[in-house]
Amino acid sequence: MRILFLVLGCSKNQVEAETLASLFANKGYEIVDSYQNADCVIIHTCAFISTAREEAEWHIRKVLEYKKTGSCRKVVVTGCWVQYHTEDVEKIFPEVDHFVGTAELHKLEKILSQTDKCLQQKHVSRSGGGYLDLPLGYKRMLPKGEYSAFIRLAEGCNHGCSFCVIPQLRGKYRSRSIKSIVNEVRILSSYGVKEINLISQNTTYYGLDLYNKLMLTRLIEKLENIEGIKWIRLLYTHPMYINSELLKLMNESDKLCKYLDMPVQHVNDRLLKLMRRGMGTKKLLEIIGRIRNTVPEIVLRTTLIAGFPTETRKEFRELSDFVKEIKFNHLGAFEYSDEPSTLSYKLKERVPPLEKTLRVETLFSIQKRVVSDYMKKRLGTISEVLITGLNQKHAVGRSCYEAPEVDGNVIINTLAVKPGDIVKVRYIGYREYDIIAELVKE
Question: What stretches of 264-418 adopt beta strand conformation (E)?
Fold first, then answer.
């Protein structure tokens, strides 16, 4: 059987799909990259906010239309949307052959191998399930030409933010073993991966459930010894679990990027409490100060929510002033999304939709000025860049100060390089979130 994986949502979903593809390939299935060549299309969905579900619905309709006229015999919908809104998805798409939730993904190959009948089956468990992992010796499939990979450290989350559905979708936090992660990175390194990006719903919490103590620093020390890995990057870190041991390693390490993705969501004490973030403004500012004092070269990325229920204009101005003052190098901002199963849904005072949109636009407007100042300071400096692609006129890449998919790129005025190269460049200009560079001759 020829299978196409259509992946929607975050980098965690991408890792999951690559793992599933690897499991199928090792069982003799052919993994293809177009509808035209597929006997079965597996649509791996996201359900974090309403727009993610709308995107999933659009793609499912498109694939089902193709099924009527093309070679595709089966359409399978998997992942978070199935787990979160099983009955709704079934009613909307009775033509789908299988629905498989997040806790049953490890059974997916068995489900497809049992029958070729186009009889709709549902496979959703509320148990939370285990972590979807590869057996020792299996190679994880990456898209062709990829020299960067996301490494998922854990499944689920224990934190329980009032706006978040992840614990309902993925269960409690469950760390992978250090041995399993190290083995995966060794395999990826053996076929050319140079950058790894460590992810989970809360990366800095890693190990506490499995080893009874925070083990991220210990894990990184193991990963640093793997030949071929040039950069190790931390994404999705909760500020509450960033400790001095981790910051010391970041300041001293040649491989751990001086880059920290640290979603803070808001800065107002009252709203942080309603969000159940586990800390107030004073503690948050103290942590940011400690990070910058310990790692002077640090590049910080954050994510913010605008229009959380009951957020007043004064509290939003507090958030805006925070963005001006802290000057995050990279920033994402999102409108609060109503999710009926969350605690925040019970809050009665809603910020009007248009006001939420305007608040997000205000944050991005402020951030553009912050980024412009940041880019100016980089002009004339030299750093290494991982080449990720070529177009007709330029090479495109990222330094250790830009994360894949979410940050800007480095545009280099040369074609005398190839994807996977790590080269030295000097920064000579910028346009919005991308920085322009020239090669430095050795």
Answer: 299-306, 330-335, 382-390, 395-398, 410-412
**Inter-residue contact 212 to 206 (CB < 8 Å):** no
Ordered DSSP codes for 170-203: H-S-EEPPHHHHHHHHHHHHHTT--EEEEE-SSG
| 3-class secondary structure per residue, 203-268 | HHHCCHHHHCCCCHHHHHHHHHCCCCCCEEEECCCCHHHCCHHHHHHHHHCCCEEEEEECCCECCC
Per-domain residue ranges of the chain:
2-123, 148-377, 382-439
Structure tokens that stand for 94 in this block: 């009775």
Query: Would you say domain 382-439 falls under CATH 3.30.360.10?
Result: no
Number of residues in the chain: 442
- Both tokens of 143, joined, read 């898209």
Q: Are 260 and 298 in contact (CB under 8 A)?
A: yes
Three-state DSSP class for 358?
helix
Phi-psi region of 279 (alpha: psi -120 to 50; beta: other; left: phi over 0): beta
Q: Which of 103, 104, 136, 98 minimizes the C-alpha distance to 120?
A: 98
91/94 Cα distance (integer angstroms): 6
Q: 2-123 has which fold? A: Rossmann fold (3.40.50)
Q: Which fold has domain 148-377?
A: pyruvate-formate lyase- activating enzyme (3.80.30)
pLDDT tens digits, one per residue of 13-34: 888 888 888 888 888 899 888 8
Contacts 24+ apart (CB under 8 A), 266-270: 266/304, 266/305, 266/308, 266/311, 266/319, 267/318, 267/319, 267/322, 268/311, 268/315, 268/318, 268/319, 270/315
Q: Mean pLDDT lowest for which of 51-60, 102-111, 330-339?
A: 102-111
Residue showing tokens 């990279």: 330
- pLDDT, residue 271, reads 97
User: Quick one: which of 77, 15, 85 has its CA closest to 43?
Assistant: 77
